[in-house]
Specification:
Blueprint (H helix, E strand, L loop, with lengths): L2 E3 L3 E3 L5 E9 L1 H4 L9 E2 L10 H20 L5 E5 L6 H7 L6 E4 L5 H15 L4 E8 L1 H8 L15 E2 L2 E8 L6 E7 L13 H20 L8 E4 L3 H14 L8 E3 H4 L3 H4 L5 E2 L1 H17 L5 E5 L1 E4 L2 H5 L5 E10 L8
Parallel strand pairs: 3-4, 5-6, 5-7, 8-13, 11-12, 11-14
Antiparallel strand pairs: 1-2, 2-10, 3-9, 7-9, 10-16, 14-16, 15-16
Length: 339
């Protein structure tokens, strides 16, 4: 059964499996380094719809369909989120599926939250299968949080490129690897960043706090994990994260990667600091990390989706951008905790 250990970490001693994943991405993501790994690459980022927001919902619906087919099950619940107001990307995407749905919002960290909550539901016996799903769309995010695309604003080098796509995972009571063995729920951090074009700086402190807390609570060294994977800090946030952790005596330089760096080729795709958006970490996990766990190339990872918490109103009022992160341990063995 799950139990709280330390200040912020929940550990699982019974199997909580991830039995399948699904990933759908846009054209730019398909042209990136991971393009051949995604389940579906769109040929049209409008997905046959009339608006960007409707396109995102269509992507959600299609990606969940892929997940259900690959897993062979129809889940008891869906836990989903996106960047649109009131989680409309998710809600309109699942409305015809007719499965009870929990809508969540933790910005680009939403996939970590979805996995954590799904694992609790499986461990408690409340469900046998739960679909964790998130999405984002470059155009809908830019319209909501920054500038209308029609203005043609020049993006600063600190900015990240919101990933168009969706990623999903089936969390299940089936006893087969890989397993969610623990998660650490991060605290909300505020380092005074108020530039919506520099979200990596806002999220890096939250990632550092969450990783540090996880290692302390689980009595693990950073080297225990084959990879520590952050969500979408990009190049700017990655550098800040390494510096912040080194101040605490934690060195992850040799086993850290960031999904926002992995999904695009900075030199050829003009994505500046890298990728971001809910779908960034979810699609990379579904397309690359999960497969590497399944084939034994990786045995254990600490997956840390990161989020920049803001709204159109908070940005207009000049409020700081808050940071958040969830650290989810995914391993190929069930752990018998002695802590």
């Amino acid at each position: 059964m799950a139990k709280l250990t330390g200040a912020e970490t929940v550990v699982f001693s019974k199997p909580v499996s991830i039995t399948a994943t699904a990933s759908t991405v846009g054209t730019k993501e398909g042209d990136g380094p991971l393009g051949k790994l995604f389940d579906r690459v769109l040929t049209d980022n409008m997905a046959g719809e009339e608006t960007w927001e409707a396109a995102e919902s269509a992507i959600v619906k299609d990606d969940l369909s892929i997940l259900f087919e690959k897993s062979g099950v129809r889940p008891d619940f869906i836990i989903g989120g996106d960047l649109q107001n009131q989680c409309c990307g998710t809600n309109y995407g699942v409305k015809d599926i007719k499965i009870p749905t929990f809508g969540i919002f933790d910005a680009c960290a939403s996939f970590g939250e979805a996995l954590a909550l799904a694992a609790i539901m499986i461990d408690s016996g409340a469900a046998e299968n739960v679909a964790a799903e998130v999405s984002s769309h470059f155009c809908s995010a830019e319209r909501q949080f920054r500038f209308p695309l029609e203005l043609g604003n020049q993006r600063p080098q600190t900015s990240t490129y919101t990933v168009t796509g969706a990623g999903a995972a089936m969390v299940s009571s089936a006893d087969r690897p890989p397993y969610i063995t623990a998660f650490t729920a991060g605290k909300i951090t505020d380092y005074g960043v108020n530039d919506a074009n520099n979200m990596g700086a806002a999220m890096a402190p939250a990632a550092a706090e969450c990783i540090s807390s996880h290692l302390r609570d689980t009595v693990r060294d950073a080297a225990y994990y084959d990879l520590i994977v952050t969500g979408d800090l990009g190049y700017v946030g990655k550098e800040l994260l390494l510096q912040l952790l080194k101040k605490e005596g934690i060195d992850i330089a040799d086993n850290h990667i960031d999904c926002g760096i992995e999904i695009f080729d900075k030199a050829s795709q003009d994505t500046h600091s890298g990728g971001s958006g809910c779908a960034c970490s979810a699609a990379v996990f579904a397309a690359m990390l999960y497969k590497r766990l399944r084939n034994g190339e990786l045995k254990r990872i600490l997956f840390v989706p990161t989020g920049a918490l803001m709204s159109p109103t908070s940005i207009q009022e000049g409020k700081n951008i808050l940071g958040t992160a969830y650290a989810v341990a995914v391993e190929n063995e069930v752990i018998k905790w002695n802590i």
